[in-house]
């Protein structure tokens, strides 16, 4: 009895060689190495209400504020609430910026004509630039405003031939872009 038990234990506990794959004789294939490029991973942090997001790529930070919290519909005059939000962004620029150029970029959704959207986005970028100029007085930065209209959507305005209002709201935005200290 002990002999058969020890034989079973030896068979169960002994390492067995890995099975050798059987390759059919008519198969001829070269083994190639897979070489894939490494892409930058760009993380985005978005506020719970979706009105603000921040992305960082290398040393460049982009803070995006949706136009819906900055302006009334089809307007370019900042709301009181907008000035409070911009004060927070200005403090972030003051604390983290390496100095130099801070870009203020206006964007719209695809509603309206291209020329109207370009003008509206430019005026909105200029309104944000003007407000932040006062908030960043004494900081070692130069502000530049530019409007892109609907030419640089963050997400598609239309999906499966249907307009997506949530996406359009994200595309109506002003971005503050700056380089951080190393």
Concise structural overview:
With 182 residues, this protein is an alpha+beta fold. It has helices spanning 2-13, 67-70, 80-96, 114-135, 165-171; strands spanning 43-46, 52-57, 60-66, 100-107, 141-147, 158-159, 162-163, 173-179. A six-stranded mixed β-sheet has the order 1-2-3-8-4-5. A two-stranded antiparallel sheet has the order 6-7.
Q: What labels would you give this structure?
A:
two-stranded antiparallel sheet, about 180 residues, alpha+beta, six-stranded mixed beta sheet, single chain, elongated
What does the model show?
The protein has 182 residues and is of the alpha+beta class. The chain is 34% helix and 24% strand. The chain has helices at 2-13, 67-70, 80-96, 114-135, 165-171; strands at residues 43-46, 52-57, 60-66, 100-107, 141-147, 158-159, 162-163, 173-179. Strands 1-2-3-8-4-5 form a six-stranded mixed beta sheet. A hairpin with a 5-residue loop joins strand 1 and strand 2. The model has no long low-confidence stretch (mean pLDDT 85).
Task: Give the SSE layout.
Elements: H1 2-13, E1 43-46, E2 52-57, E3 60-66, H2 67-70, H3 80-96, E4 100-107, H4 114-135, E5 141-147, E6 158-159, E7 162-163, H5 165-171, E8 173-179
Helix pairs in contact: 3-4
Pairing-aware structural class of the strands and helices? alpha+beta
Query: Can you give the helix content as a percent range?
Result: 25-40%
Relative strand content: 15-25%
Shape: elongated
First-residue to last-residue Cα separation: 74 Å
The count of β-strands is 8
Order of helices and strands: HEEEHHEHEEEHE
pLDDT average, as an integer?
85
Uncertain parts: none
């Amino acid at each position: 009895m002990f002999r058969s038990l020890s034989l079973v234990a030896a068979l169960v506990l002994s390492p067995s060689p890995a099975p050798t794959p059987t390759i059919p004789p008519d198969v001829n294939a070269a083994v190639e190495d897979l070489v894939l490029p490494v892409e930058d991973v760009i993380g985005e942090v978005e506020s719970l209400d979706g009105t603000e997001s921040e992305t960082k790529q290398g040393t460049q930070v982009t803070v995006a504020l949706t136009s819906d919290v900055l302006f009334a519909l089809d307007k370019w005059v900042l709301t009181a609430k907008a000035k409070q939000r911009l004060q927070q962004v200005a403090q972030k620029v003051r604390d983290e910026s390496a100095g130099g150029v801070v870009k203020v970029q206006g964007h719209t959704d695809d509603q309206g004509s291209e020329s109207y959207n370009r003008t509206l986005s430019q005026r909105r970028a200029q309104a944000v630039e003007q407000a932040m100029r006062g908030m960043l007085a004494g900081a070692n930065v130069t502000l530049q405003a530019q409007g892109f209209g609907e030419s640089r959507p963050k997400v598609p305005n239309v999906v499966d031939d249907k307009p997506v209002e949530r996406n359009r709201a994200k595309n109506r935005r002003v971005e503050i872009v700056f380089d951080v200290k190393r």
